[in-house]
Amino acid sequence: MNIAQVDYDGLIPNNVALGQDVRVKHALEKWHPGYIDWWNDMGPEGFQKSLVYLRTAVSVDPKGWAKFDYVRMPDYRWGVLLAPQMEGRKVNFGAHKGEAAWQEVPGEYRAMLRRLVVIQGDTEPASVEQQRHLGKTAPSLYDMRNLFQVNVEEGRHLWAMVYLLQKYFGADGREEAEALLQRRSGDPDTPRMLGAFNEKTPDWLSFFMFTFFTDRDGKMQLEALAQSGFDPLSRTCRFMLTEEAHHMFVGETGVTRVIQRTCEAMKAAGISDPYDIDKVRKLGVIDLPTIQKKANLHFSLTLDLFGNEISTNAANAFHAGLKGRYREDRLKDDHQLESGSYPVLRFIDGEIRNEDAPALSALNMRLRDDYVGDCNNGVSRWNKVIADIGIPFAMKLPHVAFHRHIGEFSRTNVDVDGNILSPADWTHRRTDMLPSSSDRDFVESLMQPQFEPGKFASWIAPPKVGIDNKPGDFEYVKIA
Ligand code: BYC
Questions:
Q1: Three-state DSSP class for 241?
Q2: Is residue 313 in contact with ligand 1, taking CB distance under 6 Å?
Q3: CA-CA distance, 389 to 383, in Å (whole number)?
Q4: Contact by Cβ (8 Å): 14, 130
Q5: Is 296 left (phi over 0), alpha (psi -120 to 50) or beta?
Q6: Is the alpha carbon torsion for 459, 142, 222, 164 positive or negative?
Q7: 211 close to ligand 1 (CB < 6 Angstrom)
Q8: 382-411: per-residue pLDDT in tens?
Q9: For residue 284, which of 396, 437, 126, 445 has the smallest C-alpha distance?
């Protein structure tokens, strides 16, 4: 079988020769109806019968892996796709560095590996649940299609993790696969596992911020898992990253188009003060300070997804060769980190300051630092748009200690510049830094659907190019 080609003959498209793996094939076929029920209950609300111009993977060859066509979402061919196996691949870090990469789960690391797969798997359906109401207020058919593309691919990423659970973890893997369909984002009794995936995504600016910030955590975590010595996990994550690039694109260009529209409208109306919020809002666009507050919220919620700054779990996963650093294979050191140190920002004696910690224990921090660098690159691109239009404003990431619920700073109040605040000052200044209920109401008031092909809501600029090079008035979703 050609690994690059995807076999579409059976119920479950795959490039893992599922036809010859009867036990796993049956297990996945048994799981399939529950997944479809979940999708119908918790997937995009109101558009399940509509034809959506979606891309589907037909190959895992990086050049030309997808085809575009109209599909009803429940008919999307969710499948199991792994990047091709690399001949002679080794464990590249940790205590087993240099050994042949594992094709089966190493017994001693079974529980740790299962936990990583389950946590990764849990985030995927969670994001679909969080975004399920957004179709109804889409600012264009182009954006609606992008939302649905992200949603079906997050669904596929759930399949990716469920395949690993079913194939490599026996009965407890099957139980975990069931549980992934039972938990619900925001449910008080059966919530999703990580904090940010239980928050609401109430409007489209939140969606773009989520895909900019939280999907970028997805990218970092997948990059770290793609380094895994457990080869099936590495191959799975490598292909997921190919799909993830579009999600980053949706977030980055989405926020950019909102900013661009605001700045253009201000310029046309002769408003130069970005803080003249009432006047800017009257133009039917989102003022820059509110966009900044949304960024503050989503960045801080996403930082919590990196776990504690000092983490034995992270050290153990690296030592075991299961989860590496961001692009481990490009780093130049001993890849074992037994003796090195890493500066960690901590809250000590009432002050925020760097303290060296053993490099192994500081791996969450290191990944978070790489993430912050990646976010900053995106923010610079937003700022170029603002500067080019000539508005005196610059977006910036808040301090990493701002508005945190996990780790070192979860018990202290810190402003966006990193100054420690008393509880009273925090309460007083909170809505200067995070969206207030009136900011939320205003953004929500703009969320009027625009379903005419080629038209866009007042608060967002059209994209530079269409998906699959389609013309501006292309009907990306045929609403039924
Ligand atoms: N919320 O030792 P620590 C994506 C728990 S996003 C709740 O610091 P560790 C996507 C932690 O579980 C990427 N609990 O934890 C994006 C632990 O509990 P136990 C998803 C939290 O393991 C958009 C305890 O606190 N993938 O793909 O070093 C759309 C001690 O913490 C949280 C992954 O995250 C939290 N935020 O770090 C769709 C990769 N943080 O075990 C998809 C897999 C920590 O003591 N996961 N805790 O009961 C991991 O690598 C790690 O589990 C974490 C946490 C980085 C999440």
A1: helix
A2: yes
A3: 10
A4: no
A5: alpha
A6: positive
A7: no
A8: 999 999 999 999 999 999 999 999 999 999
A9: 445
